[in-house]
Amino acid sequence: MDLHRPRIVSAVVLALSLFATAAPVFAAGYESIIDDDTNAFVPGPGTFDRNYTFGTRLARYNEAGAMPRWANRLAARMGGKGDEVTRRYGTAFGQEMYTPDAISNPKPILNDRPYAGWLYGSAFVAASDARRERSVELRVGMVGPKAQAQQAQTAWHSVTGVRLPRGWDHQIGNELGMQAIVAQRWRPNGYQ
After folding, report:
1. Whole-number Å distance between alpha carbons of 125 and 36
2. Where does residue 167 rank: exposed (0-12), middle (13-18), buried (19+ CB within 10 A)?
């Protein structure tokens, strides 16, 4: 495996993550990068992988109100009270990894979760006012080797000096997947 490309990709993802957290919300829309791995930047043998191991998501939010007709109709149906309703549309790309506890074991682990990766693209719509936000997201992607989780985890562990995963040969097979996610969040005291 060529380790130079994963190192470059890791450096670019880290730089984009730092930029995204420091960047202001632009009037024409904005991007966000979410990395939800608590061990991602802690090298060494003391880190752990088990169950939900890692997830990252790059999302692009369009300017408020600048959305396709179908998304605008859906956001209008999701409601919101008063003139202070903000409607947004966006797209995202993400990857999630799931591993058993003993990632150094190259054999199938029958009493633990299997290795699995989920690579997806999505479109989402949100409508919010001072009290709540409602959102709908449709994700379409692949599980299995085509999700590239083995390559991503192995490259990251090689770069950071964490024990290498040895059981990816036993991951779930390739399958197309879809998720529909409907969420509602309330804001206490009208805070946005």
Report:
1. 22
2. buried
This model's pTM is above 0.90: no
One-letter amino acid at 152 equals A
């719509």: which residue's tokens?
125
The three-state secondary structure class of 9 is helix
150 DSSP assignment: H
pLDDT tens for each residue of 42-98: 444 444 556 778 888 999 988 876 888 888 889 888 876 556 888 889 999 999 999
DSSP H or E stretch at residue 176 = strand 175-186
* Separation of alpha carbons 37 and 31, rounded Å: 19
Rounded-to-integer distance, Cα 68 and Cα 2, Å: 41
| Structure-token match 């529909």, residue found | 180
Dihedral of CA 141/143/144/149: which sign?
positive
- Among candidates 77, 86, 163, 87, which has minimal Cα distance to 124? 87
